[in-house]
Amino acid sequence: MFTRKLTKKEAGIVRLVIDFVKNKHIRQTGHDYAHVLEVCRWSLEIGSRIVEPVDPFVVLCGALLHDIGRIGAPDGSFHGLDGAARAREFLEAVMDNPEMVSRITGLVVRHTPTSGIPPRSIEEKVVCDADGIDRLGLMGMFRGIMNRKGSMEFIIKDRIRNRLQDYDKLHFKESRELAEPYYRETLRIVERLEKSLDRRLLNLEQIESLKLIRREF
Ligand SMILES: [Fe+2]
Ligand SMILES: [Fe+2]
Question: What is the Å distance from ligand 1's center to 49 Cα?
Answer without folding.
Answer: 23
